[in-house]
Amino acid sequence: MADAALFIADLALGLLLGCVFAVVAHGLNLIWGVAKVVNVAHGEFIMLAAYGAYFLNVSLGFNPLLSVPIDAAIGLAAGLGFYFGFLHRELRGKESMGLQSEMVTLVATFGLSLVLINTAQTLWTVTVVGIPWSPGVLVLGSIELPLGGLYVAILSVAIIALSHVVLSKTYLGNAIRAYSQDIPATQLVGISPTFIAAIGTALGFCITMAGGALLTVGFPTGIYPAMGNRYAPISFVIVVLGGPGKMWGSLVGGLILGVIINVGQLFVGSLSLAYAIAFLTLIPVLLLRPEGILR
Amino acid sequence: MRLPSIRSFGPTVWGIGLFLILLAGSAPRIPVFLLTLIIGLLIWATLAYSLNLITGLTGYVSFGHVVFMALGGYALAYGVGTLNLPPVAGVALGAVVGAALALGIGLLTLRFRGVYFAIATLVIAIAALYIVLEVKELGDGQGLYLNVGFQPLAMFYTIWVILAVEIGLTYIITHGRIGYGLRSIKSDEDAANTLGINAPRLKLFVYTLSGLFAGAAGGVYAWNVSGAFPYQAFDLGFSLQMLAMIVIGGMGTLLGPLIGTVAVYLPSQIFLTIPVLSGLQAIVIGVVVVVIALFVPGGIVGTLQKYIPEFRGILE
User: Fold this and answer.
1) Which candidate from A102, A240, A282 shows the least CB-CB separation from B114?
2) Which domain holds residue B39?
3) Is the ipTM of this structure higher than 0.90?
4) To the nearest 10°, the Cα dihedral for A270, A275, A276, A280?
5) Is residue A203 situated within a structural domain?
6) HEC profile for chain B?
7) What distance in Å separates the CA atoms of residue A226 and residue A273, rounded to the nearest whole number?
């Protein structure tokens, strides 16, 4: 009976964790869907957002939820910079990414990721830091849920839902979706492809960095320069699980991965093996359902 | 397979050959600190040529090459430390482990193209680290220490032979039917398949070969640093450094990886000796990779070929 309670608690925690993973991966998903580019430095922007939340906490006493909008604004700026620095030359005037352009962006963003990690190590050392903020626990029968995690999960789902509304109900969102489906047709109806690609990338970064701030709450994650090495693969797997460009795919993928990691840890008895299993689910998914598990 | 005749060797082949023979001849007379530097250079050249085989020749970007290097190193540390093999046999074991691993990973992942292959290799490399951390035989996350002493000459000749064989094989592959097949895969894989080129088999062949040499180089690396330690061995910075070398030197060329290795390795060693700059080494390499990848796609060799017509016949 105790085991069943432990299992349910882990399942619930896994679902909460999955929501945050989902929002972090959602940013990558948007960039992947719109610009058809995989940002290998994705994890490093999560790391920067987490440090942003940390420094806001240390200097101004902000709790991580308050730093979400600030990190998101920084993300918008970072996304615009990223688009014009890395993608514009490869995307401009093209209807689709060739293998050559794909290789260029992969190698360049991989370089960027190492630059960011090492710069962070030089500036902030490799010490693991964290934000001491905990609003208490919610007791449901025999299960205790951290309230911080609950707030974060609610906020995460809200962010994903908001992005969904923006993408499906507004003119800008429709333009972004049109661009991701057919670039020449988008141009024919008078939409500037550069503007849309830049805005789409910036929105992706905005969501990613908001997720980075959310990640610092309540979960035993820790903030350190190489933390991206954990969250980037998680995001890749989530996006592939849900299907690149499918907006609810990130949420489904995130929940699955959160459960695999938390419940897997209970079964295999070690966190790093649980992570390894979660990462390696990428291979069977790519082999069996390369378009993602959602229809 | 028909071998290219000696007459067809261009100046590049003679140049690389002369460089290697001069190194081998003078090795016993070189002071030890310089020899250590050269051993490091040869290890990295082997890794760069190894990545060149798959990424340079077929265009499949492998971010996870460090996994072959790391497990090759673990194979040597385990073989020498636990099975009491001589170090050279340990290197051979590393090569076998690298090749077997590449064969397995390649069977699963080489059917993914472009981004998907790159991500799959990256994710596998990180998952491998998490698994190695939990394996008792491989030091349980602490790593394996070696106690064989420092044998610079033995190490030098081992890595020298590996590199010479690797460069020779690269030459034979690029100048034969396999090379044509690989080039056609790089420019258009579907068209290559239509022409009757067995793309999956060719890709698997070069990927396995690439894993073999990366495993061997990882073995010598572990021998050189006297052990294999998880966080150092699986450092993704190693993957970047290999990629940096072939991107800077010129992907898919015969001379490029060697030039790239010299251009990346020597400055980074100089950086390491200056305390203020030692943290900046990786940052500088990263910046250079970003700039070259975005603005100079051919690397050093490709750019020379493009702008100076006289070099086209000489460099390859």
Assistant:
1) A102
2) 6-314
3) no
4) 140
5) yes
6) CCCCCHHHCCHHHHHHHHHHHHHHHHHHHCCHHHHHHHHHHHHHHHHHHHHHHHHHHHCCCCCCCHHHHHHHHHHHHHHHHCCCCCHHHHHHHHHHHHHHHHHHHHHHHCCCCCHHHHHHHHHHHHHHHHHHCCCHHHCCCCCEECCCCCCHHHHHHHHHHHHHHHHHHHHHHHCCHHHHHHHHHHHCHHHHHHCCCCHHHHHHHHHHHHHHHHHHHHHHHHHHCCEECHHHHCCHHHHHHHHHHHHHHCCCCCCHHHHHHHHHHHHHHHHHHCCCCHHHHHHHHHHHHHHHHHHCCCHHHHHHHHHCCHHHHHCC
7) 19
Q: Which residue of A has its CA nearest to B60?
A: A103
Task: Give the domain extent around A154.
Answer: 10-226
Cβ-based contacts of A237 with chain B (< 8 Å): 123
Domain membership flag for residue A257:
no
Task: Check CB contact under 8 Å for B113 and A99.
Answer: yes
Alpha-carbon gap: A104 to the closest alpha carbon of chain B (Å) = 6
Question: What CATH number is given to the structural domain containing B132?
Answer: 1.10.3470
> Does residue B266 form part of some domain?
yes
Q: Would residue B1 count as lying in a domain? A: no
Per-residue pLDDT of B201-248, as tens digits, reads 999 999 999 999 999 999 999 999 888 888 888 888 888 889 889 988
Q: Using a CB-CB distance cutoff of 8 angstroms, which residues of chain B are in contact with residue A276? A: 127-128, 130-131
Mutate to test the interface with A, among B62, B117, B121, B126 (most CBs of A within 10 A): B126
Q: Rounded to an integer, what distance in angstroms lies between the CA atom of residue B156 and that of residue B135?
A: 31
Q: What is the pLDDT of residue A1?
A: 45
The tens digit of pLDDT for each residue in B194-212 reads: 988 899 999 999 999 999 9
Residue B183 covered by a domain:
yes
Considering only the beta carbons, identify the residue of B126, B279, B285 that sits closest to A122: B279
Structural domain count of chain A: 1
Q: Is residue A31 part of a domain?
A: yes
Which residue among A115, A237, A283 places its CB closest to the CB of B286? A115
Angle at B54 between CA B41 and CA B80, to 5 degrees: 50
Token pair of B151 as six digits: 């044998």
- Locate A117 and state its tokens: 């990690």
Residue B76 domain-assigned (yes or no): yes
Residue A57 included in any domain: yes
Number of domains within chain B = 1
Q: Do B108 and A287 touch (CB under 8 A)?
A: yes
Closest CA to B256 of B206, B309, B197, B305: B305
Taking CB atoms and an 8 Å cutoff, what residues of chain A touch B240? 110-111, 114
* For chain A, counts of helices (H) and of strands (E): 13, 2
Indicate the pTM of the whole model.
Answer: 0.89
